[in-house]
Design brief:
With 147 residues, the protein is mostly beta strands. Helix content is 12%, strand content 41%.
Length: 147
């Protein structure tokens, strides 16, 4: 099976029960139920990993909206824009493999950051993926398109 390098992981975040803030990590472990330690682990398997591109933050910044990374709820912030990739596309990151399952839907909380943000990021907020091969993802890992 061929692999093509398309980018790298810039930051990793998880949600912790009882904490409204996202926690930055250097490494996460994934299995068939999602991201271990994340409060959404074993909840919605098809939406286990939220991937957001740096381009989403750049787009907001172009409209004078500044926000810290993790504001979009991402688990992985990457330097590649994956929003054009179709459902079913597989990505190999670290020792894990994930499969794009759906585009991210917009959450009402984005309007708390800025009223125009939900409309602005309608198709550019992120993508959800499910875990197809358990493993570990680290900050700075290279992302490979599997095909």
């Amino acid at each position: 099976m061929s692999r093509k390098s398309i980018g790298k992981v810039l930051s990793i975040f998880i949600s912790i029960k009882g904490n409204s803030q996202r926690v930055e990590k250097n490494t996460i472990l994934l299995d068939s139920k999602g991201i271990r330690e994340d409060k959404f682990y074993d909840k919605a398997i098809e939406r286990s990993v939220l991937i957001t591109s740096l381009s989403s933050y750049d787009l907001a910044k172009q409209h004078d909206i500044t926000m810290p990374y993790a504001s979009l709820g991402e688990n992985l912030l990457i330097d590649y824009n994956p929003y054009h990739l179709p459902t079913g596309t597989k990505l190999h990151i670290g020792t894990a493999e994930i499969e794009i399952s759906q585009n991210c839907t917009l959450c009402d909380h984005l309007s708390n950051i800025d009223a125009q943000l939900p409309t602005l990021l309608k198709n550019d907020r992120g993508i959800f993926a499910k875990v197809v091969k358990e493993g570990e993802i680290k900050k700075e890992d290279i992302i490979y398109l599997v095909g």
